[in-house]
Design goal:
Helix content of chain A: 40-55%
CATH superfamily of chain A: Jelly Rolls
Distance between the termini of chain A: 33 Å
Largest sheet of chain A: 4 strands, antiparallel
Radius of gyration of chain A: 18 Å
Oligomer: homodimer
Structural class of chain A: alpha+beta
CATH class of chain A: Mainly Beta
Number of helices of chain A: 9
Number of strands of chain A: 8
Shape of chain A: globular
Number of domains of chain A: 1
Largest interface: A-B, 34 and 34 residues
Order of helices and strands of chain A: HHEEEEEEHEEHHHHHH
Strand order of the largest sheet of chain A: 1-8-3-6
Chain lengths: ~190, ~190
Amino acid sequence: MELIDALPKNMQTDPDIIKFITEDFQTKIFKKGDLISKQDQYNRHVYFVTHGLLRSFYYENGKEITTKFYTEGQLLANTDTLFQNNTTRYNFAAVEESTVKFCNYAKLEELCAVSLESANFSRFVLGNIITQLTERISSLQFLTAKEKYLKLIHENPNIILRAPLGMIASYLGISQETLSRIRSEI
Amino acid sequence: MELIDALPKNMQTDPDIIKFITEDFQTKIFKKGDLISKQDQYNRHVYFVTHGLLRSFYYENGKEITTKFYTEGQLLANTDTLFQNNTTRYNFAAVEESTVKFCNYAKLEELCAVSLESANFSRFVLGNIITQLTERISSLQFLTAKEKYLKLIHENPNIILRAPLGMIASYLGISQETLSRIRSEI
DNA sequence: CGTTAGTTTGAGAGGACTCAAAGTCTGTGG
DNA sequence: CCACAGACTTTGAGTCCTCTCAAACTAACG
């Protein structure tokens, strides 16, 4: 999915936007396992996933905890850094070979500082992210391991097919073994 | 906390903003237990908590599940409705007597459609909400009941003092009894 | 001072965890 | 094209955390 297709129609033909996309974005391909960004650092890029699957994760008692998956058409960024100016606790890595388009967040800020349309579209995007996160919170809050897995199957079957079991388990907040047992009884 | 104090300095003196705050906002006081907004409806207001404590919740097997608390200086809104145009699954109610200032989201949209400053401040606010939600997800994902409670004490001691145990328990995703036992052993 | 909301305590059941070991898959080098 | 190493998944056994149901206790309020 191309970046421009993710924009509302009226912005797709806006010369400022086109200029922004063509001049300020770079493309990069990550191989399976490649790190895009490391924890405890500042990374002020915003990535748009053109193709592939990526994830964010951190270490807890030596184990990797996957916090989120990012597929085609989604945005990936260090919100800690962009919005709070802190280093981030998350690593970002490619689960499979992935192509991303990225730009410096400062450039996006510059655009939003002069383009009302962009600022408002950006608000819209953030609003949708909030809805997604809220939904995820309510899954984690009270569902059993099995319910969480079934919900993921329903809402994001492609992740289940594409990501290894261990990553999915930690994403759901359950152990690998438990997820494996759940799979076998379905 | 007054609404105007929540704004960045440069906006506090902006005539358009002042006009917006004084003309488009209303004030309302809710008594303990009062419902602000009900599930399965559209509520397109945005509320700013001047004083007090409110919460959002839904019903699961007849039990109330508290999803979030809102204290002084925070915003409360039906993101389902504002960003996705759906009815919401959440109820909002006052945990204790609370004063809110509220406006129609459409008015805020109108303001953002003409005021770059406002649109960008709004983006900033949304960004912070995202950071908070992300943080909450990681608490729910892997902490034990006790760890979640200790984290809440650390980050939001006032909620623990002001909200009844049952609401706090469901907010943490644990049962009342478990929370009570955790309290007694601390 | 009684009624209701809220909290604590107890007992038993079950889900999910950990540690450990055995399978299975996959890709690379001979 | 096969074999093997390393990554990934499954299975087993035992333990512990947290749940549920029930009942007693306490606080708040009219």
